Each structure stands twice: as structure tokens, then as C-alpha cells.
Amino acid sequence: MIDLKVLREEAEAVRNSQRVRGEDPELVDQLLAADDLRRNAIVEFEKYRAEQNILSKAVGAAKGDEKSALLENAKELAAKVKSTDAIRAEAEVNTQKILLKISNLIDSNAPVGGEADFVVLEEIGTPRDFAAEGFEAKDHVELGKILKAIDTERGAKVSGARFYYLTGMGALLEFALVNYAISSATKAGFIPVIPPVLVKPAAMEGTGFLGQAAENVFHLEEDDFYLVGTSEVPLAAYHMDEILDESSLPLRYAGYSSCFRREAGTYGKDTRGIIRVHQFDKVEMFSFCKLEDAAAEHQRLLQWEKDFLNAMEIPFRVIDVASGDLGSSAIRKFDCEAWIPTQGTYREVTSTSNCTEFQARRLNIRYKDATGTKSVATLNGTLVAIPRMIVAILENHQNADGSVNVPLALRPFLGVDTLLPA
RNA sequence: GGUGGCGUGUCCGAGCGGCCUAAGGAGCACGCCUCGAAAGCGUGUGUGGGAGAAAUCCCACCGUGGGUUCAAAUCCCACCGCCACCGCCA
Fold it and tell me: Cis (ω within 30 of 0) for the bond into A250?
């Protein structure tokens, strides 16, 4: 959530942020009004409460007739306290409700517009010219069959559309990617983590996934658990309700977990293959740092993502995601998009967001320095999302016979130089 | 799943209806002492919110949420978590 003080002082900036996101700027004025009511209600309640505290002490000290007289007054006052407290509580809830609807104050450097209005920051590597090489590229589904690495048919039989099995070299490829990712992250100072993937509402709410993204979250009704769509959720919530030591920042975690997404509203989109699936594994970077270091940290996360794609020898580009396409927590987001030969286009494979204090404020994560306690900033970035990385590797490194060359960096982790038709 | 015990400040730990504005200890910070340190002595030491120009004052917080009461860390109810034993499973 945003800071109420910021809202009071810079209401117009918040309205504008809502506008460029394509969200409701009216909420700002609703919130200002609710906040005003809230503060008045607090003053009213506290006035009676303070009186009651004094009177209660007098009751304790008094005896006999004097006591019964005081008790009469005290009873009236108690009723007054109760009613004003109820008004106060309602005002607090109402303010909070609106506050949670407002998205993070967008970075003025982020491009304004919708999904298509991203800015390409750089293009790295050159897509292969399969025509010049004398054969037509096969897509990952076909390659997956030839290598017996991906089985979408049985995935559909057992679990339905958007499910798949990784088998044989496909399964080993996942382990190799994860091991490479975790080992490079550990070298870079990340703490490796295997988090829970079922979380309570507070964790989901705190990371901002129950707002606009709620329709994509699996919910276990019976037990009120959510299945996380990314380990960003349990990693962010890891330090919930804690005060961190200034000297421990930046704190960097690399979480490996399964991710679950409903993919609502994507019917007919990416129905073939494993580009868009309900369940996949991912290694996610997550940083807790000081607000003033957040922009630099964001660049670092992006650099680690670029290093990974370079190590996989995949042509890709980096885009600055436009305002209308950002998550509610993010003030800015960079996506790395890998070249997918059979689609003739770049597709998102990793993504990094700067959420500043937005999540930390909801999750109550702070740090202490000489001047007091402040909210930390949180940032996240994908190191590797397995299915999409497998797609990129298979399609970009394929040979005419359906075999696939393994990127140099991955060979020590996989144990082979080439994936051969099985 | 059953039974019993327990959740108090940075930590340990007392309190079990009103002088709780939470004892005592440890830690930490500063000061005194010292050539310097340790010990000792003294002072301070949480979070959130509200009012105010400020000094400052007020309110809330003893696992969480309700309730009883003029008054709740303390009594009642529910839930969550931890520990122990038993049962079941791996």
C-alpha cells in the first residue's frame, strides 16, 4: 500500500499514477475523505477513552456512596466509549479497504501506455537464420516428442489443458537449469530457499496478488490456503512483521518453487506447448533493501537475468514495460524476452519488478537505523522459469535431425553436450 | 486425531481483576571511574496511531479475534502457534 502521508501531500501525483495505469483516480479522493473521517473518529474516541481511564482509577480508590455515584457516571462513559470506538473501527476498516485498492506510485521513467507501448531497451544476440542453414525450425512440442522430453498429451489426459510431463532429458534439463541457477545465485550472495507454496491470505494480500491479479490465483476454499503463483509471495512474506537490522541489507534470497496460475482469460492463447501452463517450477530472486538503493538493485537483478540468458546463448531483448501493464505493486518492470524461432518473435521469459515500499508496508517489514524505523524496499526478478527456458533452449539450439546442442554453461550440470532423439 | 502444559518488551522471566505508568535480570547505548579495559556506579533503552508551530500530551499494543466489567496481561469463548506423551501415517 502507499503511504497515507504521501497521499495527503501529493494527491495529484497519486491520481496521475492511477490514470496512467488505467486505474481509477477517483479512489484518491475517496481515500482522502475516508482518512479525514477516520482521524476525526480517533480524536472523538480517544477523548472519551482518556476520561474513562481517569474515572476508572477514581472508582477503584473510592468507597461506599461515593463509589456508587462514580459508578453511575462511569457506566454512561463506558457506553460512550463503546459507541465511539465502533465508529472509529468502522472508519479504520473503510480507510484500509480503499487504501488497499490503490496501486503503487508509478516511476515517472516508465513508459506510459498499454501492453503494446513498451520501450525496447536493448537487443542482445542474433536470431539464427534457419533458411540459410537449410532446414525449417521445429517447434518445442515437436522437439519435445522427438527427444521424449515433453509430454503434453499425457499431461492433458491426467490433469487437463495446460499441464505436461517433463520426462527423460526434459526432466534432467530442469534439474540442470535449477542447479545452474542456484549455484550462480549462491555465488552472487543469494541465500537459496525452498519455500512453502501454500500460503495464508495475509501473505497473498501482502504481496498484492489479491487485487487485479486475484483471478489468476488458485484458492483452496476448504482450508483457506492460496497456491502461490510465484515464490515472490513466500519470499516477501518471509520477513513479515519483522524489523530487520540495517547492516543485514541488502538481503537477497533465491527461491526455488513450483508456481501455480489459473491463466484465466487466456483461452485460446498459447494453447500449444508449454509456454503458458498452470504449473511450473521457477527460481526467483528476491531482494530486501533500502528505498534509496532500490533503483540500483533493480538494475542488478536485471543484470543477473541477462547473465543467465547469455549463458544459455539465447538471443533476447530487454523491454521497459508500459504503465498500463504493470502489477499493482510495481513502480517499474523490465522483461527479458527470448527469441522464439517458430513464432518469429520475442516472448517473455524473465521479468524483474521494483516494488519499493509497497509490499513491505502491507507486510509490515521494516529496518532500523540511527534515525528510526523505516519500511524496506522489495524487488523481485526471475532467474529462470523452467518451461519457457526449455522452449527457448530447444528451439534456438536445435539441429536438422531434431537433436539439440546444450549451452556450454549447462553441460557440467547436465552431463551431455547434445540432446539426442530418443 | 487424543490428552496435558505453555505463548508477556531485544532476550530470559515475574505478575493471574484497579499503585501494571509490566517487577527482577541479561543485553545494548551514553556518562562517571581508569593509562586503557574489565568490574562497579548512574542514566536511558519498544511498536503503531492521534493532537500540536514546538516543548509536549493523549490513545492502543502482554499469540490472534470476540465477550464479561466502571476497569482485563489477569476472568470467559473461539482460533492460531509451540512443547510433551499417546494413536495413526511415512
Answer: yes
Q: What is the mean pLDDT of chain A?
A: 90
Q: Tell me what the mean pLDDT of segment A394-409 comes to.
A: 95
- ipTM of the assembly? 0.80
pLDDT for the residue numbered A86: 85
SS3 state at A314? coil
Q: Are A298 and A411 in contact (CB under 8 A)?
A: no
Q: Is the CB of A159 under 7 A from strand B?
A: no
For a pLDDT cut of 70, what percent of chain A falls above it? 98
Distance A368 CA to B12 C1' (A): 23
Residue A318, C-beta contacts closer than 8 angstroms, at least 6 positions apart? A120, A121, A122, A124, A302, A306, A334, A335, A336, A337
Smallest CA–C1' separation from A366, nucleotide: B47
CA distance A209 to A54: 45
Quote the CA–CA distance of A327 and A209 in Å, as a whole number.
Answer: 9
Q: Which nucleotide is nearest to A55 (CA to C1')?
A: B70
Distance, Å, A54 CA → B50 C1'? 19
* Whole-number percent of chain A with pLDDT over 90: 60
Residue A199 has pLDDT above 80, yes or no: yes
Covered bases, chain B (protein CB within 7 Å):
18-19, 46-51, 58-60, 66, 70-71
CB A233 within 8 A of CB A207: yes
What sign does the dihedral A27-A32-A37-A41 (CA atoms) show? positive
Q: Is A323 left (phi over 0), alpha (psi -120 to 50) or beta?
A: alpha
**A93-122 average pLDDT score:** 92
Q: What single letter denotes the amino acid at residue A248?
A: S
pLDDT tens digits for range A52-78: 888 887 877 776 677 777 777 888 888
* Domains delineated in chain A: 4-99 (1.10.287.40), 115-419 (3.30.930.10)
Grid coordinates belonging to A65: 456512596
